[in-house]
Amino acid sequence: MPTVFFRDLGCIDYQAAWDYQTALHQELTAAKLLRRTHVPGQESSQSTIQHYLLFCEHPPVYTLGKSGSESNLLLSTDELVQRGFQYFKINRGGDITYHGPGQIVGYPIFDLDDFFTDVHRYVRTLEEAIIQTLAHYDIESQRVPQYTGVWLPANAQGQPLRKICAIGVHLSRWVTMHGFAFNVNTNLNHFSNIVPCGIADDDKAVTSMQKELGREVNINEVKDILKSKLASLFVFDYG
User: Fold this and answer.
1) Could you tell me the end-to-end alpha-carbon distance of the chain, in angstroms, rounded to an integer?
2) Catalytic residue set
3) Cα separation, 82 vs 69, whole angstroms
4) Residue among 142, 185, 145, 136 nearest 162 (CA)
5) CA-based diameter of the chain, in Å?
6) pTM here?
7) What separation in angstroms does the CA of 127 have from each of 40, 140, 147, 152?
8) Which of 53, 219, 224, 239 could bridge across to 5 with cysteines, CB 3.0–4.6 Å?
9) Cβ-based neighbours of 177, under 8 Å, separated by 6 or more
10) What CA–CA distance (Å, rounded) separates 224 from 99?
11) Is 106 in contact with 180 (CB distance < 8 Å)?
12) Which residues does 28 contact at the CB level (< 8 Å), separation at least 6?
């Protein structure tokens, strides 16, 4: 069973977290290559695979995936600065999204050779961990076939299909980085400055646990539940 080292980075600047992810990704990839050339009977600690799961929050920032369109950012450069937002073009999949306080941003740095080499299954498993976490709070959620992420269904009260978690990943040599953004107590007004995930449909919206439950949620409690769901679904122990 793989061991995953968990680190809660707290509220951290996006660039600092990206640099840290990149360093861990490079470390894991290098160890993986060493393991492939390892001679049996010759022990080497350098070839030990260490997987990581990072949780954090970011100051308000917009990130654009490599397949996204800049036209989905509705603010000019000057407006971004004036309103206190950062903006990064990054190497994950997907379009534009928002990160900010009250959101659990998760960055798994996994070598999928130790789990399963299936990108579709990897994304579905991340989604399932969020779905099971929401179920703990009696929030019904689902997948939408044509989109990644986790959604709340439209309901009889007139609420449309609502996205509560965005997912965008990057893999190199089956080693993952980037991950998910799960709205717990997130300021949803900040999504109005973008076309979230490039989805402009009138019958879709963005939501959070706080909005759905009508109260602020203990984010540390959510983290603990989510950690447990991820370990159970991916079948690993925490180091």
Assistant:
1) 11
2) 197
3) 22
4) 142
5) 65
6) 0.93
7) 38, 13, 11, 12
8) 239
9) 21, 22, 24, 25, 92, 107, 108, 109, 169, 170, 171
10) 20
11) yes
12) 49, 50, 51, 52, 109, 111, 175
Please, are residues 120 and 90 in contact by the beta-carbon 8 Å criterion?
Answer: no
| 210 contacts: CB under 8 Å, gap ≥ 6 | 102, 184, 185, 186, 216, 217
Q: Is 61 exposed, middle or buried (0-12, 13-18, 19+ CB in 10 A)?
A: buried
pLDDT in tens, the chain (239 residues): 999 999 999 999 999 999 999 999 999 999 988 887 755 555 544 457 899 999 999 999 999 998 889 999 999 999 999 999 999 999 898 899 999 999 999 999 999 999 999 999 999 999 999 999 999 999 999 999 889 999 999 988 889 999 999 999 999 999 999 999 999 999 999 999 989 888 888 889 999 999 999 999 999 999 999 999 999 999 999 98
The residue with tokens 């450069």 is: 77
Determine the Cα–Cα distance for residues 61 and 54; give it in Å rounded to an integer: 18
What residues contact 88, with CB distance under 8 A and at least 6 apart? Answer: 14, 15, 18, 61, 62, 63, 64
Q: Which of 148, 154, 116, 114 is nearest to 130 (CA)?
A: 148
Report the phi/psi class of residue 224: left, alpha or beta, with left for phi > 0 and alpha for psi in -120 to 50.
Answer: alpha
Specify the residue for token string 């044509």.
Answer: 146
